[in-house]
Amino acid sequence: MPVDEAAVPRQLEELRRQIRELGPSVAKSFKSTVENLRIAVDAATEAAASTIVAEAGGTSTSEQGVSTTSNPAASVSFTVPEGYTRALVMGTGVAMAYNNSGTGDYLYVMVVINGNQGGEVYNYAPSGFATSASIPNYVSLTDLAAGEAITVTADVRTSYGTWTPSAANMTTIYAQVQFLR
After folding, report:
1. What residues contact residue 69 under an 8 Å CB cut-off, 6+ apart?
2. C-alpha distances out from residue 17 to 1, 6, 117, Å
3. Containing H/E element for 11?
4. What is the pLDDT along the chain (181 residues), one digit of tens a residue?
5. More exposed terminus of the chain, fewer Cβ within 10 Å: N or C?
């Protein structure tokens, strides 16, 4: 505890004096450390930027028919860049269709990434009604070669019958790829 009211301002002034005297000598000793840290951060940023190449794309088709056989209704492809051998791929498929088959049925959609089938999701539509469904798929690919294609598709089908082409029918695939060395 300070003895008198003037003690606190004196102690504060003493601390300020010590900081002024020590500041330049301490700053000099940290200068090289700060510069080395800045160089390391710049190098890490550059390395990360040259290690990952990201791409994204998508496409839609419309007015297609849907049968009981699962078929790619929309697709997008990416080309493996030179020097990259791995990829993290994510795709999301969305299907919307009008059931004009004359009986209630299910619309299914799944995302396939280079042959790797994800799960399949479905939604019911009474005859004369439309429905939609969407689903993601995530895959890690290895042992890739430069120039190789990575294809991501949204595959659709029904359970019981064919739904003929309609203006209400649309399938979309959205995908992104992170190529890694």
Report:
1. 157
2. 21, 17, 71
3. helix 7-51
4. 545 667 777 877 887 777 777 766 666 666 677 777 778 777 777 776 678 899 999 999 999 999 999 999 999 999 999 999 999 999 999 999 999 999 999 999 999 999 999 999 999 999 999 999 999 999 999 999 999 999 999 999 999 999 999 999 999 999 999 999 9
5. N
